[in-house]
């Protein structure tokens, strides 16, 4: 696939899944033709999507011969909306299982950022035979921080943005989302705000989900030892959404994990340090 066709529009796909009690239409982007498949799972920020979270990371993997799938989780972007009264991590894992079954894909590597990391861990616990390697960035449920009051400053700003989706609240959240804000353009802000406001049902249902169950992402710490997949954990030292000590606890619980810390990095390592991130992931997946 050439860079000319490696665009959001050219790779956009829809599928209807019926998996367990989940019956939804999912949107995903399907890039490349490789036998090995990498799935990318985005975070929980309002207006998030697979493409918005990972557009700086797709091309290197496709050029290296991987097929890359970016899933829009239920309740985000072009996928169906819903209210989640239980574990969002397990719900997303169920959605991924349905997508892979629909596409006749048996085994995948998973890259998960924030909520996507939690969902990747849930998938690895539920369907271990279908996981190759894991890359977890700023998420994975290693438990609450021992040193930072919970919810964190970043999570508070994220929830405020869901309740009051304005450009000022978006800028307030993004101001601490990344370490270096110089790449955050007015065009990026406006695009993200437009994406949010285009799906008010997603915003409303996320708030309803929190009201029904404030702990959308359960702590999997007691079960991390069950995950035998090789895992690369990547964290930003200045992450103000999910503190770094959570990543240390995640590595301590996963028997085959290694850790890379980026200094001068917030909650979006794959975007803030894209070039080095891409090189590390390629090396990890191919060796």
Gist?
The protein is an alpha/beta fold and 287 residues long.
- Measured distance between first and last alpha carbons: 24 Å
| CATH architecture field | 3-Layer(aba) Sandwich
Helix content: 40-55%
- Roughly what is the average pLDDT, rounded to an integer? 96
Total strands: the figure is: 8
Biggest sheet architecture: 8 strands, mixed
Using only C-alpha atoms, the radius of gyration works out to 17 Å
Uncertain runs are: none
- Percent range for β-strand residues: 15-25%
Question: Which terms would index this structure?
Answer:
single chain, 287 residues, alpha/beta, Rossmann fold, eight-stranded mixed β-sheet, 12 helices, 8 strands
Question: How would you describe this structure to a colleague?
Answer:
With 287 residues, the protein is of the alpha/beta class. The chain has a single domain, classed as Rossmann fold. Helices cover 41% and strands 19% of the residues. It has helices at residues 8-11, 50-54, 58-63, 88-102, 115-126, 153-163, 167-177, 186-198, 200-212, 244-253, 269-272, 274-286; strands spanning 12-19, 22-31, 37-41, 67-72, 108-113, 131-137, 231-236, 257-262. The chain has an 8-stranded mixed β-sheet with strand order 1-2-4-3-5-6-7-8, sandwiched between helices. A hairpin with a 2-residue loop joins strand 1 and strand 2. It starts with 7 loop residues before the first helix and ends with a helix. The mean pLDDT is 96.
């Amino acid at each position: 696939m050439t860079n000319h066709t490696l665009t959001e529009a050219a790779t956009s796909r829809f599928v209807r899944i019926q998996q367990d009690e989940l019956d939804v239409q999912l949107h995903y982007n399907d890039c490349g033709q490789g036998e090995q498949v990498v799935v990318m799972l985005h975070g929980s920020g309002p207006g998030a999507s697979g493409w918005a979270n990972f557009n700086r990371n797709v091309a290197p993997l496709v050029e290296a011969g991987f097929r890359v799938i970016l899933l829009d989780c239920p309740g985000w972007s072009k996928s169906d909306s819903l209210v989640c009264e239980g574990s969002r991590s397990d719900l997303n894992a169920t959605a991924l299982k349905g997508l892979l079954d629909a596409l006749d894909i048996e085994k995948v590597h998973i890259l998960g950022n924030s909520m996507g990391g939690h969902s990747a861990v849930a998938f690895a616990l539920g369907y271990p035979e279908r996981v190759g390697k894991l890359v977890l960035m700023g998420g994975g449920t290693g438990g609450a921080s021992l040193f930072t009051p919970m919810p964190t400053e970043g999570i508070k700003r994220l929830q405020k943005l869901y309740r009051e989706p304005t450009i000022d609240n978006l800028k307030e959240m993004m101001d601490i989302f990344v370490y270096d804000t110089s790449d955050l353009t007015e065009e990026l802000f406006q695009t993200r705000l437009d994406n949010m406001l285009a799906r008010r049902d997603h915003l409303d249902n996320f708030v309803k989900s929190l009201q029904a169950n404030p702990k959308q992402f359960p702590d999997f710490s007691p079960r991390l030892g069950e995950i035998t997949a090789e895992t690369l954990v990547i964290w930003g030292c200045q992450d103000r959404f999910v503190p770094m000590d959570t990543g240390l606890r995640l590595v301590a619980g996963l028997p085959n994990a290694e850790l890379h810390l980026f200094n001068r990095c917030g909650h979006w390592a794959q975007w803030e340090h894209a070039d080095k991130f891409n090189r590390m992931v390629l090396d990890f997946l191919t060796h």
